[in-house]
Amino acid sequence: MRVPDTPWPAATATGIGSMPGTDPAEAARTVLGELPHLPHLPELPARGLGADIIGRTAAMLVDLPIEEVPSGYRVAAHAGMDHRRATDLLARDLDVFGEVLDSARPQLAKIQIAGPWTLTAGIELARGHRVLTDQGALREFTESLAEGLARHVADVVARTGASVLVQIDEPTLPMVLAGRLPTPSGFGTVPAVAESAARDVLATVIDAAKQATNQPVAVHCCADRPPIALCHDAGADLISLDATLITASDELGEVWDAGVTMMLGLVPSTDPAQPTTLADVAKPALRLVDRLGFPRSILAERAIPTPTCGLAGASTTWARHALALAAELGMAFVEPPESWTR
Description:
Elements: H1 24-34, H2 53-58, E1 66-69, E2 72-75, H3 81-100, E3 108-114, H4 116-121, E4 123-124, H5 135-160, E5 163-169, H6 173-178, H7 195-213, E6 217-220, H8 228-233, E7 238-242, H9 250-257, E8 261-267, H10 278-292, H11 298-302, E9 303-307, H12 316-334
Parallel strand pairs: 2-4, 3-5, 5-6, 6-7, 7-8, 8-9
Antiparallel strand pairs: 1-2
Helix pairs in contact: 1-3, 3-5, 5-7
């Protein structure tokens, strides 16, 4: 079976980003050991302030320091202790990842950032409103994120020697589009953002990622109704979703048929109550392609298996097994068991 030319080889699997624990060396060894074709820079949110998706991405921003307040993160007048902690954690992760890589140098590595809508929904302006509610601030943050991402990519390349695939995480985007994002007071909601505006802002960061890496760009959203067409229209080459939640739709079928690679979240991201087999995790993928009317060979051609979301809430034992199971599933996509053939 011919698999289209991609920066990743056939039978590739990857992770979403977060891992359990607080030891970046242990997390890096696990990721590199189980996902040799497309390892990801691990995120360790259990370390607290500055290690979560918002703080970690804010550490990349240029000339836009943040600080912690009771309600979360807020734009700061200058870079203080909170901002320095976030930047130090990110730098430490890169150093450790590069050190662990000495024994195994991949050609391609994946990094993750919060997308512009998730980032600006998660940071407040000085007066307490979310950044995304101010058009000038939204534009400034988007431009800063694009510039900071380019610098971050350069740092990753310098430490690893690998090409870089950027994954843009937008878990908050469906709430932004639907007008379901609560105001900081909790008594109202932020007005819905038009799809065209959301697309254009996301496209700015996707374009910046492509210019920085000269590689495809992924957008991740594990909601039950991810904005698949919007992500595709914004320029995403890969779309990452929770395949155990999503249903077959014309939108999904059209985007997949157009050549987008789907990163299918199939392996439980937390310790399952019952033993989980390869057949168990494969079922949602097989059911999805069958309902869409695709040949199952599309899983080998344009699909990468992943956990359903980040593994921060898993035990270290399950996290390792989940990545190994995703890798096993990637191989089964290319060389399916006889039971998969129709």
